[in-house]
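Anyone? Bumping this.
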Amino acid sequence: MRVLPTMALVSIVLAAPPAVAASPWAEATAPAALPTASLGSPAAGCLAGAVALPSAGPGFQILRPARNRYWSHPRTIAFVERLGRAAVAAGLGTMLVGDLSQPRGGPMPSGHGSHQSGLDADIWFRLPPLPLGDTERDTPTAVSMVRGAGIDPGVWGAGQARLVELAAGDSEVERIFVNPAIKAELCRTASGPRTWLGKLRPWWGHDEHFHVRLSCPAGAPGCVAQAPVPAGDGCGAELESWLAGPAVPRKKGAATPALPAACSAVLAAPPVAP
Ligand SMILES: [Zn+2]
């Protein structure tokens, strides 16, 4: 092993980006040329035959395309495009789409514990009237909708509430993670049927974006479904317990669940032709 002088070592350590473990999943730059399949679960899975969300379309724009996390199951892509069209119809502005999945899904070296099987999509609450320019698209500014224990009325409004309701009303959406303060606000202001509120699951963070999770595709034996969301609108005791102070999140560095054996073939498969 080469020994570096102490000062040189210190400057290298200071200049280095945060350590990110090399992952074959992050290094796969193109999808696996296999029939489309969501394998495993969002927190321990992978994705065969992924397709890319276009960088922009009616009502939506992807953020940080250089991260190469705009891949997903075709059904998730169709959902995002459908929600974008609904946002246009409702006059909501431009829907900013954050991470979907890597080209072959799998664990990401940073940012998420899930998004592994092509069922998850992050959508920002910010709704700019026009699409962002390239510079801001590549280094976007996140805006928290939460201030103290409640929402920030300076940035949260009817457009945000409508977008979440439209997403939750989609029959293929199984659950949506939002900050407890945001769920509380939607519980307070919702009018009409309240079944969609039950899909909103309080979770830490999720104050500048909401995280949409689709159900497993029908007839997909390799896709591991999550337990269904509890019945009711979830605006009562469960939400109160979150607002009182949520349970401690899983510690960083906790053992990550093993991927299904079928994911080895996804990693080993040739890439789709460009
Ligand atoms: Zn997410």
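Late reply, but here is one note on the structure posted above: The chain has eight helices and 13 strands.
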